[in-house]
TrEMBL record:
Residues holding L-ornithine: 160, 223, 227-228
HAMAP family in the cross-refs: OTCase
UniProt-recorded name of the protein: Ornithine carbamoyltransferase
Domain called Aspartate/ornithine carbamoyltransferase Asp/Orn-binding: residue spans: 149-301
Pathway given in the UniProt record: Amino-acid biosynthesis; L-arginine biosynthesis; L-arginine from L-ornithine and carbamoyl phosphate: step 1/3
Keyword set, alphabetical order: Amino-acid biosynthesis, Arginine biosynthesis, Cytoplasm, Transferase
Enzyme class: transferase
Length: 306
């Protein structure tokens, strides 16, 4: 994985198809314990958004590699008092070996990466969630033994998670269907980028019909209907998104071997029912665990430990 050493990951499409497959293979080996690289480096977590899985999984992954983690909460740094991002980036670049940033604006990631020489990892922005997509694709591969020709249907808001799923799915040859209410589709430029990557070899479908989108799908995936920063819209969104709820009735239209994924946290009774997330088809907890393994592979790769 020498090609990833020192590189940023701001979008899942920053990876080549070969690099994506190699990362997934490394993550699988690390999860099985057959590959145990050491990397005594320092990771900084610069998170402007609340986090459970991303914060903990990155922290544990770095510790397991033999490194250290510094939590750079903006509330206790000069970022909260208006220090320019280029200044913060250039200073932290002198202290840290790698930084994972969780923020609202994708442009903040791009600015930080421009001024810092160390690897910068997108730990979530309003535009993409590439680390989540790595774990998602890894989980699908574990369940089906392949990625090509597997159909994943994402239901709900065409948000950052949907964007990264479109790109990652297209890269590995999965069929990706996105079912959303009108006006909540994923960004048109991301859809076009995914179609360009797929080159007609796999399906990229955007639809407003949840039942049609689910028919024959092997993976049903959902996320909260209102992301962080959209809390005031949550109540008004519920009636619009109700037909896209992942529940037992909708699940019956999927393939007989279908699994259910959710990036969490889940609002049970809204985008997913208790029966769906707790049922035999749920792989949500495996998916959450795989965040740590995928990110460990990514950290080891960008830090040159592989």
């Amino acid at each position: 994985m020498a090609t990833l050493t020192g590189r940023d990951l701001l979008s899942v499409a920053d990876l080549s198809v070969e690099e994506l497959h190699q990362l997934l293979d490394l993550a699988t080996q690390m999860k099985a314990g057959t590959l145990t690289p050491r990397c005594e480096k320092v990771l900084g977590l610069l998170f402007s958004k609340a986090s459970t899985r991303t914060r903990v999984s990155f922290t544990v992954a770095m510790y397991q590699l033999g490194g250290q983690v510094i939590d750079l909460n903006p509330n206790v740094t000069q970022v909260s008092r208006g220090e320019p991002l280029p200044d913060t980036a250039r200073v932290l670049d002198r202290y840290l070996d790698v930084v994972a940033i969780r923020t609202f604006d994708q442009a903040d990631l791009e600015t930080f990466a421009h001024y810092a020489e160390m690897p910068v990892i997108n730990a979530l922005s309003d535009r993409e969630h590439p680390c989540q997509a790595l774990a998602d694709i890894m989980t699908v591969g574990e369940c089906f033994g392949q990625l090509e020709d597997v159909t994943l249907t994402y239901l709900g808001d065409g948000n950052n998670v949907a964007h990264s799923l479109l790109l990652a799915g297209a890269m590995v040859g999965m069929n990706i269907r996105i079912a959303t209410p009108a006006q909540f589709e994923p960004a048109a430029e991301i859809v076009e980028q995914a179609k360009k990557i797929a080159q007609g070899k796999s399906e990229i479908l955007i639809t407003h019909d949840p039942i049609e989108a689910v028919k024959g799908a092997q993976v049903l995936y959902t996320d909260v209907w209102a992301s962080m920063g959209q809390e005031e819209e949550a109540r008004t969104r519920i009636p619009l998104f109700q037909p896209y709820q992942v529940n037992e009735d909708l699940f019956n239209h999927a393939d007989g071997s279908a699994i259910i994924l959710h990036c969490l946290p889940a609002h049970r009774g809204e985008e997913i029912t208790d029966g769906a997330i707790e049922g035999a088809a749920s792989r949500v907890w495996d998916q959450a665990e795989n965040r740590m393994h995928a990110q460990k592979a990514l950290l080891a790769s960008v830090l040159g430990a592989i």
